[in-house]
Specification:
The complex is a heterodimer of chains A (362) and B (226). Chain A has 362 residues and is of the alpha+beta class. Chain A has helices spanning 40-48, 96-104, 116-122, 138-150, 168-184, 196-202, 220-224, 337-343; strands at 4-13, 16-25, 29-33, 55-60, 63-67, 72-73, 81-84, 156-160, 189-193, 205-210, 213-219, 238-249, 254-258, 265-269, 278-284, 288-291, 302-313, 319-326, 329-336, 350-355, 359-360. In chain A, helix 2 (96-104) packs parallel to helix 4 (138-150) and helix 3 (116-122) packs antiparallel against helix 4. The longest helix of chain A is centred in the middle third of the chain and has 17 residues, at 168-184. Chain B has 226 residues and is mainly alpha-helical. Chain B has a single domain (5-40, 47-63, 89-217), classed as MetI-like (MetI-like fold, Orthogonal Bundle). Chain B is 76% helix and 0% strand. Chain B has eleven helices and no strands. Chain B has helices at 5-38, 44-56, 59-70, 75-82, 92-118, 121-128, 133-144, 146-161, 165-170, 181-190, 194-218. The longest helix of chain B is centred in the first third of the chain and has 34 residues, at 5-38. The radius of gyration of chain B is 20 Å and the shape is globular. Chain B starts with a helix and ends in an 8-residue tail after the last helix. Classes of the chains: A alpha+beta (362), B mainly alpha (226). The A-B interface holds A 48, 50, 75-78, 81-83, 85, 87-93, 102-103, 106-107, 133-134, 136, 141, 148-149, 152 and B 121-122, 124-133, 135, 139-140, 143-144, 223-226.
């Protein structure tokens, strides 16, 4: 069985056309990222079969759900998927437990890979089982909705901005659960979002949608650093680095994070973690300054040896964006045009990137 | 004895007619209401208007056309004669058909409103949780639309009990077959038996009031979709 998701979708209605052709990894979290109206939700609904795209080929890890050329269309209820809507959409006439069992009851015993105890523990809702949906907070409802979908043991989890309807406090209440899900369950996830923060925390792969078309698709570290995509030009531009925990300095409370495939490392202030654990950090382009010499006698913790790959104009005249390479890990730096000329930057040049702040995404 | 045996026979017949009509209407009205609530078809307008016609037409108009259709020369009449059933005019079966058409909007419209209020989302959720459409109907739509079904059943039943014009046109006045309460009251008045008319008419007023009282007191705020 191939671990891949193949999508070809063409769907149009007045004022909008979705037209995409994607090969996505059949594991991990893939973010569909774009502004509202870019076709993210329509794309998800077409994959689920909630909407029937006029021209479509949908194949998930070996199962063909739709092939319009052969007039093949598997109805939604026969697709092994879990769908999380923006609002939790719990059944109001059923208790939390009955909501959770709704999907579970409808799949064969031999196909059940997630049990009720595990799902409720994973999402921290064990104490809510006897409650009615209208007695739950927004965050609790959404967690029940996610557990309900998981209990159908889906082969693909489709999440349509599951946090968008929640305030920031509820969001931060749910995000850790989603990260646990990612770490503990081997279910591929398509995650629709317009929040850079959620994408940076959760996604392994990102698809950038605009006006129904794919602007770019690839692994998150690589794609966020692509200068030809609008992501790099925004004020929030930056890269996500997933490294492994090297060692921990208890005295200074500093964690060493080894860059993948490199002897270089970053140091971040963080609680202790086991050596070898993966940890994700975000480095923003505006937090990197460039220097021709290694920084000495500086309060800046992190200084990486990098080479210049390319540059592009930023969203204003005063700045430029420089793409850097640190032994295979891409980085973005946003510096003034003046500094670029002062340093005389050119492709292939060896530099030191001084990083003012590294945000741990956990 | 305030009510005669003929009065009781009329009451019994009326209850049979109203019960049967309500059951039939719930069965055929549900798919019509579901379709009207969810379709994007261009036929939605015309079909909705046809279902609502009995709300505005005088019962005699409905009765008149049913009489023509079910009579020996009408299409329905020729068909039933071909089947060896004779004609449906002046029969209990004819009354049931007339009542179903006459009370249709009182059942379909509350159901349609209930289904529309549920919206498409619970149906989509159920489908993503592996429920097929029939399963979804019985486990999600039916429980969520319960207040709508109760309203539809009460209105359909009560409206059929109050029927007069259609009955008179297609059913006439045959004891135990087509003589319902409203016709019986008419007979009493024609015969100047005002005391008898009072008993029956008063019973109808009390019955109607109790039905509406039950309806309006049971109507709580709708369960919200969370």
């Amino acid at each position: 069985m191939t671990s891949q998701i193949n999508l070809r979708l063409q769907h149009r209605y007045p004022g909008f056309a979705l037209d995409l052709d994607l090969q996505l990894p059949g594991k991990g979290v893939t973010a569909l990222y774009g502004h509202s109206g870019s076709g993210k939700t329509t794309c998800l609904r077409c994959i689920a079969g909630l909407e029937r795209a006029s021209q479509a080929y949908v194949q998930v890890n070996g199962h063909i759900w739709q092939d319009s050329q052969r007039n093949h269309f598997v109805p939604v209820h026969q697709r092994a998927l879990g769908y999380i809507f923006q609002e939790a959409s719990l059944f109001p006439h059923l208790s939390v437990r009955a909501n959770l069992e709704f999907g579970l009851k409808r799949i064969a015993h031999q196909e059940r890979r997630v049990d009720l105890a595990h799902a409720t523990e994973l999402l921290g809702i064990t104490h809510l089982l006897t409650r009615a949906p209208h007695n739950l907070s927004g965050g609790e409802r959404q967690r029940v909705g996610i557990a309900r979908a998981l209990l159908t043991s889906p082969k693909l989890l489709l999440m349509d901005e599951p946090l968008a309807a929640l305030d920031s406090q509820r969001k931060s209440e749910i995000l850790p659960y989603l990260q646990r899900l990612h770490a503990e369950l081997d279910i591929p996830v398509l995650y629709v979002s317009h929040s850079q923060d959620e994408v940076a925390r959760l996604a392994d792969h990102i698809v950038l949608l605009n006006d129904g078309k794919v602007l770019g698709s690839g692994p998150i570290g690589e794609t966020l650093a692509r200068l030809d995509l609008p992501l790099a030009r925004g004020d929030d531009a930056g890269v996500v680095i997933e490294g492994r925990v090297g060692n921990y300095n208890l005295n200074y409370q500093l964690l060493t994070l080894q860059l993948p495939g490199s002897t270089q490392h970053l140091r971040v202030t963080h609680a202790s973690m086991a050596i070898g654990q993966p940890l994700r950090v975000k480095v923003q382009a505006r937090d990197i300054s460039l220097s021709l010499n290694p920084a000495e006698h500086s309060s800046i913790l992190n200084s990486l040896r990098v080479t210049v790959v390319s540059e592009t104009a930023a969203d204003n005249q005063a700045h430029v964006l420089i793409r850097l390479d640190a032994d295979g890990t891409p980085l973005l730096a946003r510096i003034t045009r003046y500094s670029r000329d002062q340093l005389g930057l050119r492709t292939g040049q060896l530099l030191w990137a001084q990083i003012k702040s590294v945000a741990v995404l956990a | 004895m305030p009510l005669t045996s003929a009065d009781f026979a009329a009451i019994w017949l009326t209850l049979q007619l109203a019960s049967l009509t309500t059951v039939i209407l719930l069965i055929i009205g549900t798919p019509i209401a579901l379709w009207l609530a969810h379709t994007r078809s261009r036929l939605r307008g015309p079909i909705g208007a046809i279902v609502a016609l009995p709300l505005v037409l005088p019962p005699t108009v409905i009765g008149f056309y049913l009489l023509l259709a079910m009579g020996p020369h009408g299409y329905v009449g020729q068909f039933t004669q071909y089947l060896g059933l004779g004609t449906l005019t002046f029969s209990f079966a004819g009354l049931v058909i007339g009542s179903v058409i006459y009370s249709m909007p009182f059942v379909v419209q509350p159901l349609q409103n209930a289904f529309a209020a549920i919206g498409p989302r619970p149906l989509e959720v159920a489908a993503t949780l592996r429920a097929n459409p029939w399963d979804t109907f019985f486990t999600v739509v039916l429980p969520l639309a319960r207040p709508g079904f109760i309203t539809a059943a009460i209105l359909g039943f009560a409206h059929t009990v109050g029927e007069f014009g259609v009955v008179l046109m297609i059913g006439g006045n045959i004891p135990d077959k087509t003589r319902v309460v409203s016709v019986q009251i008419y007979d009493h008045v024609e015969a100047l038996e005002y005391a008898q008319a009072h008993w029956l008419a008063g019973a109808m007023v009390v019955f109607s009031f109790l039905v509406l009282l039950a309806l309006y007191s049971s109507r709580k705020s709708h369960t919200s979709w969370s």
